[in-house]
TrEMBL record, chain A:
Any Pfam family hit: ABC_tran
One Gene Ontology cellular component: ATP-binding cassette (ABC) transporter complex, substrate-binding subunit-containing
Organism (species): Devosia insulae DS-56
Major place of residence: membrane
Keyword Membrane recorded: yes
SMART domains the UniProt entry points to: AAA (SM00382)
Residue stretches making up the ABC transporter domain: 4-234
Membrane topology recorded in Swiss-Prot or TrEMBL: Peripheral membrane protein
Protein localization: Cell inner membrane
UniProt record, GO biological process: carbohydrate transport
Name of the protein in question: ABC transporter
PANTHER family the record matches: MALTODEXTRIN IMPORT ATP-BINDING PROTEIN MSMX, TREHALOSE IMPORT ATP-BINDING PROTEIN SUGC
InterPro entries linked: AAA+_ATPase (IPR003593), ABC_transporter-like_ATP-bd (IPR003439), ABC_transpr_MalK-like (IPR015855), ABC_transpr_MalK/UgpC-like (IPR047641), Mo/tungstate-bd_C_term_dom (IPR008995), NA-bd_OB-fold (IPR012340), OB_MalK-like (IPR040582), P-loop_NTPase (IPR027417)
Automatic annotation (TrEMBL), chain B:
Top-level taxon in the UniProt lineage: Bacteria
Organism lineage: Bacteria, Pseudomonadati, Pseudomonadota, Alphaproteobacteria, Hyphomicrobiales
The ABC transmembrane type-1 domain, residue ranges: 83-293
GO biological process: transmembrane transport
Subcellular location(s) per record: Cell membrane
Transmembrane segments: 16-39, 78-106, 118-141, 226-246, 276-296
Name the UniProt record assigns to this protein: ABC transporter permease
Membrane topology category: Multi-pass membrane protein
A GO term from the CC aspect: plasma membrane
Matching Pfam families: BPD_transp_1
Native species: Devosia insulae DS-56
Length: 370, 306
């Protein structure tokens, strides 16, 4: 295992900046997720670690070595591909053992090792099958086995679960998490699924248009999204974002918008500065922090009922404010929801996140690290 | 048997009506001559003389004559041409075109896309030139006194050679390799391009060298294309006539391939019966090639299925 470091790495395709001057370090044994929408540069970044793309400028280190211009085969890395890249003409044993074959291991030795790894991944009985004769989940595990069969410094994953159906994906995700705990491998994992990133990563790098917007542990990404982009991308359903007008009344902050009256928020120096510029603020509240309330609550969001979706343990209640902006609340099914047209919700001021006009989060004064 | 639903655009009757003109042409110009040649090969039909109008049925006499052990290996006879053609196919089609084409196609996978397009364009441009133009260009290239090759050799201080006279067989082997490698290259090139790039990338990451990727992944996955290519170029080369433009079959029959021999017997000596017999044998040889390759391809396909 080894660390991975990006030093001012830029990658351009023609005039398109796929990755713009990013720097970050993955410590030895860390599981990092690169998270973002398609075209954000996450896969390009991963492929540069693998050596399948060469940076236009900057430096990539694996452990103590500068690998920027090294061929993939000389990097001692493993990679799991989105389409699994299993060889259709080889049975599972030969597929899994292929990295050992190119290293010149004898047939007995490499098939023995392939069997060991396959047994761990519960595909030991399928070694004589061809990839076309096994299920998608088994194919995924085969490609994982091929990555694990030889010693590697870094494990790279390019959306390995995106071709699985929902149930298998959860199962495979749990298994990957278990594997990470077991092996303590250094891993870089690319995904556009925020739930996958939250579940697996020790730290998440949220990427947007070739840059890293926030690089932090999952809990921090979730509770303190650095920008409105991160707040929108992480969480399902995403954080509610409401443009508001702010005023200072006594020692508390008041926020107003159509159907919104928030009267009890603490003031910080950041908020004062943002209000001083005269620009508006954006209020962010996660759906699970909204609870049924009345129009007279201290922190109140209200509107006309738009949708009421029963999810089993919880309900997603969506309502429309006067200006058409929609807000979603996640409440326990046991709590009765008024079926009336007009609904009002309330939230604890501690759960409000405020963003300035540029979309950056305004920190509270004296904020402690999570 | 499940009944298949008919998704055809036309009714059977309308389809047959549209097909009729083409079928008639194919019948008159392909099928009829095909059986006619087989029939003629059992006669002593010639262009002129008594046997031109009323040829006699001679049974297998033409065939016996071709395989007469006394003259079989003599220059200018059927056996000599057959062996020459076999060598020609082995060297210029299998070794030359297929192997060189495969090597070039593999190398093409690693060069930048822009350069790849330029090479492809150049190769296709050379490939679409008419046979006669190519033949003449090579004739000019190899000419003893004013040929380009000898000018280059003399310029480098090397001895000039009259290649068409001294090494006629190797000239047509190299000529045919040059002529046909482009086709194999293009075919293998598109075959390689149809393999998902992640297969090779996974091998790269796993530590495979270029040769290992070729042997373990590239070649097994284009096996079907290799079989197709071998069928096509073997037949083309076996039947090729273009070397005639370069060497006229000579000197002294040393480059008289089977097709050229056939041409000489049938249309220079006007011995239609014997010429037809040669044609039938060529056809049978082609058929055997096709069957061998097809069974080979089926066996491999079956092995993959199992």
């Amino acid at each position: 295992m080894a660390s991975v470091e990006f030093q001012n790495v830029t990658k351009t395709f023609g005039t398109f900046n796929a990755v713009s001057d990013i720097s970050f370090k993955v410590a030895d044994g860390e599981f990092i997720c690169l998270l973002g929408p398609s075209g954000c540069g996450k896969t390009t970044s991963l492929r540069m670690i693998a050596g399948l793309e060469t940076p236009s400028s900057g430096k990539i280190m694996i452990g103590p070595d500068d690998v920027t211009h090294l061929h993939p085969k000389d990097r001692q890395i493993s990679m799991v591909f989105q389409d699994y890249a299993l060889y259709p003409h080889m049975n599972l044993a030969d597929n899994i053992a292929y990295p050992l074959k190119v290293r010149g291991e004898s047939v007995e030795k490499r098939h023995k090792r392939a069997k060991e790894v396959a047994d761990v991944l519960k595909i030991g009985d399928l070694l004589n099958r061809l990839p076309s004769q096994i299920s998608g989940g088994q194919q995924q595990r085969t490609s994982l086995a091929r990555a694990l069969v030889y010693p590697s410094r870094v494990y790279l994953f390019d959306e390995p679960l995106s071709n699985l159906d929902a149930k298998l994906r959860l199962e495979a995700r749990g298994f990957l998490n278990h594997l990470q705990r077991d092996m303590g491998m250094t891993a870089v994992y690319v995904t556009h699924d925020q739930a996958e990133a939250m579940a697996l990563a020790t730290r998440i790098a949220v990427m947007d248009r070739g840059r890293i917007v926030q690089f932090a542990p999952p809990i921090e990404i979730y509770r303190r999204p650095a920008t409105t982009f991160v707040a929108n991308f992480v969480g399902n359903p995403p954080m509610n974002m409401i443009p508001v007008e702010g005023t200072i009344e006594g020692e508390r902050l008041q926020l107003r918008a159509h159907g919104v009256l928030v009267r009890d928020l603490p003031i910080s120096s950041g908020i004062k500065a943002a209000l001083g510029k005269g620009a508006g603020l954006t209020l962010g509240v996660r759906p699970e922090h909204l609870s049924m309330g009345t129009i007279n609550d201290v922190n109140m969001v209200s509107g006309k009922l738009f949708a009421n979706e029963n999810m089993g343990p919880e309900k997603l209640v969506t309502f429309e404010r006067q200006d058409g902006g929609r807000v979603t609340a996640r409440i326990f099914t046991d709590d009765a929801v008024e079926t009336s047209e007009n609904v009002a919700f309330t939230f604890d001021g501690a759960h409000a996140t405020l963003f300035d006009a540029e979309g950056n989060r305004i920190p509270a004064d004296g904020e402690m690290p999570l | 048997m499940t009944k298949k639903r008919n998704f055809s655009l036309l009714s059977h009757r309308a389809g047959a009506a549209f097909l009729a003109p083409a079928a008639a042409l194919v019948g008159v110009f392909v099928l009829l001559p095909f059986f006619w040649v087989i029939f003629v090969s059992f006669t002593n039909r010639t262009l002129l003389g008594k046997t031109a109008l009323s040829p006699d049925f001679v049974g297998l006499q033409n065939y016996f004559q071709l395989f007469d052990p006394a003259t079989f290996f003599t220059r200018g006879q059927f056996g000599f041409s057959l062996i020459l053609t076999t060598q020609f196919v082995l060297l210029s089609a299998l070794v030359g075109q297929a192997l060189l084409g495969l090597l070039l196609a593999w190398l093409m996978q690693t060069i930048p896309p822009a350069l790849k397009r330029i090479v492809e364009t150049a190769v296709i441009a050379a490939w679409i030139l008419p046979e006669v133009v190519i033949g003449f260009a090579w004739f000019a290239f190899l000419d003893y006194d004013n040929g380009t090759l000898n000018m280059i050799l003399r310029g480098l201080g090397l001895p000039a050679g009259d290649f068409l006279l001294q090494q006629p067989f190797w000239v047509i082997v190299i000529f045919n390799t040059w002529r046909g490698a482009a086709f194999s290259m293009m075919l293998f090139n598109s075959a390689f391009a149809s393999i998902p790039p992640s297969y090779f990338q996974a091998a790269d990451v796993a530590g495979a060298s270029s040769w290992q990727k070729f042997r373990d992944i590239g070649l097994p996955l284009i096996r079907g294309h290799v079989v197709t290519d071998l069928i096509l170029i073997t037949m083309w080369t076996f039947n090729v006539f273009t070397p005639f433009i370069l060497t006229n079959g000579g000197p002294s029959y040393r480059t008289e391939l089977l097709s050229i021999y056939n041409y000489r017997i049938a249309f220079r000596e006007f011995d239609f019966g014997k010429g037809a017999a040669v044609g039938v044998i060529i056809m049978l040889i082609n058929l055997i090639f096709a069957l061998i390759y097809l069974s080979f391809g089926r066996k491999k396909a079956k092995a993959v299925e199992e």
